[in-house]
Amino acid sequence: MKKLVILGGGESGVGTALLGKERGYEVFVSDKGIIKNKYKEVLIHNEIEWEDETHSEDKILDAHIVMKSPGIPGKVSLVKQIRGRGIPVVSEIEFASMFTDATIVGITGSNGKTTTASLTHHILKHELEVGLAGNIGDSFAKQVLVENHQNYVLEISSFQLDDIVKFKPHIAVITNITPDHLDRYDYQFENYINSKFRIAENQTKDDYLIYDADDEVITNHLKNHTVQSTLIPFSLKKTFENGVYLENDNIKLTIDNRQFIMPTANLKLEGKHNVKNAMAASTVAHLLKIRKQTIRESLENFQGVEHRLEQVLKINKVQYINDSKATNVNATYFALESMDAPTVWIVGGVDKGNNYEELFPFINEKVKAIICLGVDNEKLMSTFGSMVDVIIETQFMSEAVKIAYKVADSGDNVLLSPACASFDLFENYEDRGRQFKNAVRNL
């Protein structure tokens, strides 16, 4: 019996354990931290062996294959030991893809991937039997086991791509690439870029890579590296014979002389970045032969993703906006760019080596006050202190929202867009976003 060891007892780990057991593996789940009760119950109920707060090395090194949670860096000594023994280490998407013949749409990028994946799924589900997984919702492995969809839209992080071997999406999307998670890539941007491009490394000419042609990082990489797949660019600035571009405020998509046109004014989601997300999603739908009418209607009624520029409430003519999902500077750039009123900006958390310079024009033009919400706000205070009249620091969401309420005037926005990870004060970005929404509702 083949032995499957799973490092990490979270969503992807437990999903893989269930699929592995069903497919005849002897499964062992090991987590250095504490496995959440809801996952422990699933493991116990399914009679899957597990341990937490420790790693039993002898058992782990006896594996035929190891699935490692994306949160565990490849640099850890245990992972190096496993690889040193010649035991394959794979990610959940690699493992799960071995057991499905479904058509896979894989979406990666530093920002926009959740919105693009959710929007793509929203369009496809009207005409196809399709699951949404990866970095979002139920794990891919669990869906392959339980629902066995004919199609999947997967939101895929660079960490998940680091541990693929044969994984190959029929349609790949790279929304953009900006410096993020560099702490995991030896602070080499090039390593992170290569990691993102792994989404296309097993593709053939019968597969597609959809990408942002306005993103110089992507276009430079494509100049210097060969990709086998059929390339379909999208852009707000350039035009293409085969691709998607803007013409007189219309999205214009042409593939093999088949056309789709949609006025940007009809898009439910606002902001330039969402025009790009819509371009990517409609290209996927077009390639999968979804009717134009369905694509149009879906783009017109898609509500957006929780914690991504989510309009919470208007109180005394002040709009409160939850963009907790903005865990890097580029995501916050999009948020500030889309503000059309004076803004009280709540920022801060775990800084991943951020460079805030690209935000300066927006700070001068749109931000009237800054509230720093983090354990260590020193860098924010020194960077932005001289740029705004009001800059305040706090370590409580409820206090941050109360301060914002006092500072904001009628017609202003209050924007939570932290540009940082959340782990200093919150469980994750969802927890941070929910605390913000609760604090706003309690004003």
UniProtKB/TrEMBL annotation:
Catalytic activity: UDP-N-acetyl-alpha-D-muramoyl-L-alanine + D-glutamate + ATP = UDP-N-acetyl-alpha-D-muramoyl-L-alanyl-D-glutamate + ADP + phosphate + H(+)
Annotated GO biological process: cell division; cell wall organization; peptidoglycan biosynthetic process; regulation of cell shape
Localisation per UniProt entry: Cytoplasm
Mur ligase central domain residues: 107-285
Pathway: Cell wall biogenesis; peptidoglycan biosynthesis
Location, primary (coarse class): cytoplasm
Gene3D superfamilies xrefs: Mur ligase, C-terminal domain (3.90.190.20), Mur-like, catalytic domain (3.40.1190.10), NAD(P)-binding Rossmann-like Domain (3.40.50.720)
All residue ranges annotated as the Mur ligase C-terminal domain in the record: 307-420
EC nos: 6.3.2.9
Name of the featured protein: UDP-N-acetylmuramoylalanine--D-glutamate ligase
Protein's organism: Seonamhaeicola maritimus
Entry's Gene Ontology cellular component terms: cytoplasm
